[in-house]
Predict the 3D structure of the following.
Amino acid sequence: MTGTMTQADGGGRPIRAGIAYMALGVFLMTGMDVAAKWLLDTYSLSQLVFLRCAVSMLVIGIFVLIRGKRRALYTRRPGWHLLRAIMMSLATFSFFYALHLMPLANVVIIAFAAPVIVTALSGPLLGERVGVWRWSAVVIGFIGVIIVVRPAPGLIGSGALPAVFATFMWAGLSLTARKLSASESTTALSLYLFPLPMLIGAFGSIDSWVAPTGQAWLLFVICGTFGGLAFVAINAAFRRAPATVIVPFEYTGLIWAIAAGMLIWQELPDVATMVGAAIIVSSGLVILYRETRSMAPGHVPSDFAIQDVVPAEDDR
């Protein structure tokens, strides 16, 4: 997630708060994934996307109203927001589809490759210079993805390709947020992502709608609320601590994903998957380190949060 990020104040308290917010945000995001995977056993993909986006829009909308920042919703780039909404739709449907077919931890591991993809595309699409260290990390990261995906004759139906595609779409969201951050508020970059996938999900679920049970309604609310609050928590983390301190805690999501997979679905990642995960995480940390060093003092890399839809506290 890319939001407005600033260096933390001096002292240990903001740093600890930043770490705590990041850990909380990652936990909430994993909780959203768990609820979604559980719901997909009974409810259609379209119904899940519709209700997830509707609840997330409501959560972020309430957050905006409480802060009194409605003017931050003004935009001068409606075409770009439409493009981002299309990418959000493709990412959301692809990610949840993969989540239905694959172990939770495998999908999360593949999603960790988003910063690697952002680095690879920032040169040709944004004109940013990517040095040999970061290109090496990109290549190594993709090797890790290949190890996790393990191309084979049954790859098409395994959910791996939709997971990779969703990760490319998330990377595209990060890149466009990076491009638009000078003229658009993070509130606008956040809220305008949801209406299109919500509408697509609503129309797609007309013929497949299943009346949710009380327990299912609770899970739908958890899915959307956790997704919305995770954005807020992760942005709060970046406002309180440097990226180099808190980004490694993003990878605690793998711990939660493995634990949930084992306890709920008896899913245990094999050795090859964990090796691939270690490679992807290592390449992401190398890229983070090199990009942080290459930036001017007072700035923090903007493409390493879990999602790029975080309402910042200082929206214009």
